[in-house]
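stage 2 :: seqdesign
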């Protein structure tokens, strides 16, 4: 009787976690409040139980899990020398999932490969809905949107119109769909293969219509990385080199087919003239990003051991702008546009080294260090932070933590008889 009750409680817990996960993913795409609600339900279910000490042991025994939490603790410690406590508290609140979610996922040891597979299908369904919604917004007035692309604006997207993070999620959705196609098609009829191929095609087309560099960079890096891996491990290498050549034709084809893609490239070429000379131009997208990285590099070297403290990072960055570009508009004064520079300026050279360490750890995780899918996922994450600061916003923090932790647990339950 006791065993049956225990099994029943485990099943109920699994269902609550699954439902709260779907709520979190739905909230990520369409509602910040729903994301917070799902996160609270998920955390309470995963942490409030009698075996929490065993769960903490699992957390500390995994270098991948505790390393991710360092992305929270270094900003937390910088509060000791941050003057603006209000701003520091805001940063700590945003980064809290980087500590909370690894502990939660450390307790999901009873989840099977099929359980994670269900979450993957939910993710793909929600992403398909998000992409279709965004395309519908585009079709409402294509002429106006084409013109906006010449001003660095994009199609409206889910995630509160955070097109950078959404493009990254689309790249992850392509990888997830391909992995499901390779590992789940034997469970379904041939129609499943057709449906998944259609979904993958829609995601790829959408990435080129949206024309956001982060998503495109992650997609192309992933596909090229996979083809190189195939070339290295398989015979008939000429065939795979041909695949790379065909892949490189995609941007050329997109230039002629998708006006948004063409106009985006045209704007980038226009912006490059300012980047080359490091000149300030009001409203410049990439030019201002370059200046912000220079500001971050300066602050990292000005405070090499401690950094400015995350509470004072914005203030110190603005002071650099005022000193070097007094004519700069307030709307153009952005934080250093690279996570390496954020942690470097906020925590000094130790922060820069820490961020590099945390980004490299996944590639050496036991059982996954030779898994090509895991490598491709983490390469995408690393590339997305070179010129972006996803870990400074709620959507980006959740995306980073949830995606990597979900895949980490999923791939670690992969049937041993199969290849990764």
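stage 2 :: out
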């Amino acid at each position: 009787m006791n065993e049956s009750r225990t099994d029943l409680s485990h099943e109920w817990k699994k269902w609550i976690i699954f439902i709260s996960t779907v709520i979190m993913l739905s909230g990520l795409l369409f509602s910040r409040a729903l994301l917070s609600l799902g996160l609270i339900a998920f955390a309470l279910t995963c942490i409030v139980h009698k075996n929490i000490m065993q769960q903490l042991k699992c957390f500390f025994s995994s270098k991948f899990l505790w390393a991710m939490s360092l992305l929270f603790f270094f900003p937390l410690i910088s509060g000791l020398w941050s003057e603006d406590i209000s701003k520091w508290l805001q940063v700590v609140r945003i980064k809290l999932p980087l500590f909370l979610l690894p502990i939660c996922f450390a307790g999901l040891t009873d989840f099977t490969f099929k359980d994670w597979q269900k979450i993957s299908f939910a993710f793909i369904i929600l992403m398909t809905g998000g992409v279709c919604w965004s395309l519908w917004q585009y079709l409402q007035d294509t002429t106006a949107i084409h013109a906006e692309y010449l001003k660095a604006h994009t199609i409206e997207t889910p995630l509160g119109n955070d097109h950078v993070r959404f493009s990254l999620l689309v790249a992850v959705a392509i990888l997830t769909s391909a992995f499901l196609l390779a590992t789940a098609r034997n469970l379904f009829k041939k129609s499943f293969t057709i449906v998944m191929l259609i979904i993958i095609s829609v995601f790829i087309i959408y990435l080129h219509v949206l024309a956001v560099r982060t998503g495109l960079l992650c997609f192309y890096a992933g596909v090229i990385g996979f083809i190189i891996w195939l070339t290295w491990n398989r015979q008939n290498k000429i065939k795979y080199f041909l695949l790379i050549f065909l892949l490189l034709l995609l941007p050329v084809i997109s230039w002629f087919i998708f006006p948004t893609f063409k106009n985006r490239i045209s704007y980038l070429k226009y912006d490059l003239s300012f980047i080359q000379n490091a000149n300030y131009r009001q409203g410049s997208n990439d030019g201002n990003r370059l200046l912000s990285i220079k500001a971050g590099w300066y602050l990292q070297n000005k405070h090499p051991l401690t950094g400015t403290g995350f509470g004072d990072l914005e203030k110190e960055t603005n002071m650099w702008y005022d000193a070097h570009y007094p004519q700069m508009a307030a709307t153009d004064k952005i934080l250093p546009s690279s996570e390496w520079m954020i942690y470097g300026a906020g925590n000094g050279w130790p922060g820069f080294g820490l961020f590099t360490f945390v980004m490299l750890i996944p590639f050496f995780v036991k059982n996954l260090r030779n898994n090509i899918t895991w490598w491709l996922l983490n390469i995408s994450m690393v590339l997305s932070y070179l010129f972006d600061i996803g870990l400074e916003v709620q959507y980006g923090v959740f995306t980073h933590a949830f995606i990597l932790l979900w895949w980490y647990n999923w791939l670690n339950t992969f049937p041993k008889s199969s290849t990764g």
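stage 3 :: structure notes
- The first helix runs from residue 2 to 30.
- DSSP finds 19 helices and no strands in the chain.
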